[in-house]
Amino acid sequence: MSFDISTINIPSQSGVYFMKDSSGNVIYIGKAKNLQKRTKSYFLKNQNYKTQKLVEKISDIEFVITDNESEAFLLESNMIKKYRPIYNIELKDQQRYTYLRLTDEKYPRLLVTRRTRSGQFLGKGKIFGPFTHGSSKLLTIGSLRKTFKIRICKKLPKKVCLEYHLGNCEAPCEFTNAQVQYEKHVSDLEEVLKGKDQMGIFSKKLENEMKIASESLDYERAKEIRDTLQRLGSLKTKQKMEYIQSSDEEFFGIKIKNQTAIVMTFRQTHGVIRDSGNFSFDIVADNTFSNFLFQYYTTHSIPRFIVVSEIPQQKKFLESLLSEKANFQVQIIQPKRGKRKEILKLILKNLSIILNKRAEPGLVDLQEKLTLPELPRIIECFDISNHGDEYAVASMSQFVDGKPNKSDYRKFKIKTIKGRDDFAMIGEVIKRRYIKLKKENLQLPNLILIDGGKGQLHAALNSLNTVDVKVPCISLAKENEEVFMPNKKKPILISKNESSLQILQYARDEAHRFGIAYNRNLRKFNKK
C-alpha cells in the first residue's frame, strides 16, 4: 500500500526531511527551501525508476524546519552521515564539501581533507570546514601556507629546502628561531580559519601585496592575489571550525504532553547548527529533565554551554557533574533574549509541530501569538457584504489545517436587521451559526475570525456569550491588518511575511470573495 502524502501536514518552510520505511528506518534524507513543495513532488507521475522505488518504500515522512536554506544544507549533510540512508548513496559528501586539516605533528602542515562515507576524517589533527566548491580552495591554501610560513614537506628534512630560499618557510627543520615562531604562525592561521578578526588583518596584508605588485607592474601576481582575496571573502562568510569530539553549544527544548516529555536538540558549533535529535521519556518516578540530560551526556560529547528552554532540577549539581566529566567548566543557561533565545523558539516550534501531529507551522505560530488553548485546526471566518438595504448578506469560510474547506463554506441572508448595521448583522449570523451547531451537536471551530475591527469583534463576542459558546474569537481589520483580541486595548501586529498572518488573511479574503459572489447572484436573480 503506497504512502498517502495528504495524510500529513508538511510546512512550506525551509528544512530537512526524513523518509522512513515500514520498519522506521531512515531511507532518504533531503533538504528543501520549501519542504511542502519538495516532498509532494516525489509523488507526482513520470518519476524515474530510482525515485519510484524510493516512493514505494516510504511509510512516513518527518522533518526539521530551519531558519534558512543554508542551515538546512549543512544539517542535511550531517544527518546523512548520522543515519547513512540507503537511498542517499549517490550523495557523496566528498564531492560537495572540502575540509582543511592542520596535522597533528610537531610542526603541523595544512592539508586538504574530505569526509569518508561514514563521516570520519583520515589522519589526526584539527579539522576546519566545510567549504563549498573544493577545487577553488586549493590556490587559497597555497596562499595561506605562504603567508603563515607553513611547511609543505611530508618529512622534516635535515637541511633547508627550496621553500626556505623562496621565502615560503622559515625552516623549523634547521633554525631554532623558526621553531619558536612556528607555533605562533600556526596559531594565527587557526584564527583565520575560524573566521575571527585575523581574517581582516590577513586580507589587508594581501591587499598591500597586491598594490605593491601592481605598482611594480607585476600584473600576474596582482591578479593572483585579487583572485585569492575574492575566495577569502567567501571563506570569511562560510567557514566554521568543526571539532570532532566537542562543540560550543547544545540547545534543548522540552515540552510535556499527557505525561510524556518530548525533547529536541540542536548542536551548534561556531554559530552553525550541525546536528539535531528527538527524544522522549515518560514522566514517571524520578524521570526528570535533569536525569535525561545526565544520561544523554553519558553517550554524547559535552559542550561548554548547554542552552535550555527551562532550567532542570538540581542545575548546580548537574553542572558540577558534567564539568568534572568534561574537564572544563560547563554552564547550563536559559537565555532571555538574543540569538540563543531565537534558536530555542525555533526548537519549541518544531516540538509543537511534533506534538500536534505535524501541524502547519503557521497554525502553531498563531496559537503561540494569540495564546490559544489549543491549535486552531478549524477556523471559521465571517464577513458582511452590503449592497443597499435590500441586499445584505453574510458569508463564512472554513479553514481546516490552514487550508480552505470549501464544502463547509456557508452563506446567510440577513433576516432581522434593517439598514446598514454591520455590528448587528455580525451578531445575528454568529448567533444563527452556533445555535445550529450546538443544537445538532456538531463540531465547533477552534477559532472564530471576524472581518473588521473592535466593533465587529464586540458584537460577535456578545452573541457567543448569549448562546454560551466558549470559542476564542478575534477580528482582523483590513486597513493595517491589525488583530483585535478580547480584553486587550491595543491590537496585535503580525509581520506580513509570517505564515500565521497569511492564514488569517486567506480565510478573510475567501469569506469576502464568497460573500461578494452570493450578493451579486442575489441581485442578478432579482433583476430577472
Q: What ranges have pLDDT less than 50 throughout 5 or more consecutive residues?
A: 90-96, 132-139, 234-246
Q: What is the helical fraction, as a range of percent? A: 25-40%
Helix/sheet category: alpha+beta
Morphology call: elongated
Ends apart, CA distance between termini: 54 Å
* Proper CATH architecture of the largest domain: 2-Layer Sandwich
Assigned CATH superfamily of the largest domain? UvrC, RNAse H endonuclease domain
Enumerate how many helices there are, as a single number: 15
**Rg on CA atoms, Å:** 31 Å
Domains, number: 4
Share in β-strands: 15-25%
The biggest sheet amounts to:
8 strands, mixed
* CATH-derived topology of the largest domain: Nucleotidyltransferase, domain 5
How many strand elements? 20
Summed over residues and divided by their number, the pLDDT gives a mean of 80
Please identify the top-level CATH class of the largest domain. Answer: Alpha Beta
